[in-house]
Fold this sequence. Notes:
By secondary structure, the chain is an alpha+beta fold. The radius of gyration is 24 Å and the shape is elongated. The longest helix is centred in the middle third of the chain and has 18 residues, at about 85-105. The chain contains 2 helices and 10 strands; from the N terminus they run E-E-E-E-E-E-E-E-H-E-E-H. Helices cover about 15% and strands about 35% of the residues.
Amino acid sequence: MRExxxxxxxxxxxxxxxxxxxxxxxxxxxxxxSSITVDGTALEASDYEIDRGAGLLRRLCGSSFVxxxxxxxxxxxxxxxxxxxxxxxxxxxxVLREQASADSRDPSLKSLRQKTDGLSxxxxxYWVNSAAxxxxxxxxxxxxxxxxxxxxxxV
Length: 155
């Protein structure tokens, strides 16, 4: 879902060394920038560069990146999706399919081997509620990988 955001950043340099090269917008997947003002003065589109997927806004002077100046910067923009991306839809279908499969079998069963009259042998391995790395998760590794580009990572 797409939304309109008005974000205000007050940039203060107390020690002379704090120089933000990028403003981190509170939302990612930027649709359009409506306006950017620095202390009430509007910027032109040529005065900044946006990384729409990461939600990072960088100030330009000509073709060079410069630090954002001290003062109040107000950014008005839209972010989100008009339509749900295909990868998110596929991840949801994958999770639902895995859940339906898990509901129809013994949840403690990790694998099953079946022999047919000594002629052939078939083995099924099941995902047992553990993501890569052994951490417990309600989402399998394949579904989790589809969601990775849309996650907000924190450090």
